[in-house]
Amino acid sequence: MDGMRSGSEWEALLALRDAGGAAAPPCGPLAKLFAPLLAPPRAEDGCLVVGRLAQTLDGRIATLSGSSQWIGGRGDILHTHRLRALCHAVVIGAGTVRHDDPRLTTRECPGADPVRVVLDTDRRLGPDYRVFQEAPPTLLLCAEDAPGPDRLGRAEVLRLPRDPLRGGLHLPSLLRLLAGRGLTRLFVEGGGVTVSRFLAAGCLDRLHVTVAPVLLGSGIPAFTLPEAARIADGLRFAWTVHALDPDVLFDIPLDRARPQVCR
């Protein structure tokens, strides 16, 4: 994307991170992509939620063994770190922690590190992963009935009801909990199951999907949803296309819509 390294434009966007939509965004290619994420939340829970996945051309986010680093190129890595910098919290599932042991910081761009939020419904992760041992702060969210203490390493443990229909945690309750802590701009970074659960629950305001020029022919699919009997059971949407050389980024406004098959 032209202007992807525009320092002054990026600094102007960072200044809007906690401005509550009171100031106008700058003009330029970065603002066209990121300004919608800085608008005031419209949902009743007070959150603006963006999901993100990087996939191959044939819709895979990892090999069957779980290897996913790196599907996207340097532009996508920078884009991911910028999403972290613009959001109050970054949300990932336990599987992503287990496979990638990520740090979830903003090493590739200027901007504050977000709070890390790990979803581990049944408390299966141990304390040795980097998100539980290093700064910035981490919250571990688990089910109300999951055993274990109120801390895991340096992470605070918070409990939520289960979702009886979709599995995992009850995501509307999760959004209300985070909003109560002032974490209202949320970046759901992965993995595919976690992003799919937010989509199925109607909890995504926006979706960023990077498509890399790679064909695998096998592997883990980007989205996992209930089986659709008809094309109409899916979700149609508008999108804007941005170049992230050598990849392509699709910016999709969802406004909490969800596929018909998930209703």
Instruction: Output the number of helix runs.
Output: 7
Q: What are the segments in which pLDDT stays under 50 over at least 5 consecutive residues? A: 1-5
Radius of gyration: 18 Å
The proportion of residues forming helix, as a percent range, comes to 10-25%
Distance between the termini: 36 Å
In the sheet with the most strands, the strands line up as 6-7-5-4-3-8-1-9-12-11
Main sheet summary: 10 strands, mixed
Overall geometric form: globular
By DSSP, the count of extended strands is: 12
Query: Class by helix and strand content?
Result: alpha/beta
Question: What are the secondary-structure elements, in order, as H or E?
Answer: HHEEHEHEHEEEHEHEEEE
Could you tell me the mean pLDDT?
A: 92
How much of the sequence lies in strands comes to: 15-25%
What is the element layout, followed by pairings?
Elements: H1 7-15, H2 29-34, E1 48-56, E2 60-62, H3 74-86, E3 89-93, H4 94-100, E4 115-119, H5 130-133, E5 138-143, E6 151-152, E7 155-160, H6 171-180, E8 185-190, H7 192-200, E9 206-212, E10 220-221, E11 240-244, E12 247-253
Parallel strand pairs: 1-8, 1-9, 3-4, 3-8, 4-5, 5-7
Antiparallel strand pairs: 2-10, 6-7, 9-12, 11-12
Question: How do you describe this structure in short?
Answer:
By secondary structure, this protein is α/β, with parallel strands linked by helices.
Description:
- The chain is of the alpha/beta class and 263 residues long.
- It has 7 helices and 12 strands.
- The strands form 2 sheets. The protein has a 10-stranded mixed sheet, with helices on both faces.
- It is globular.
- The termini are far apart.
- The relative contact order is 0.19.
- Residues 1-5 have low confidence and may be disordered.
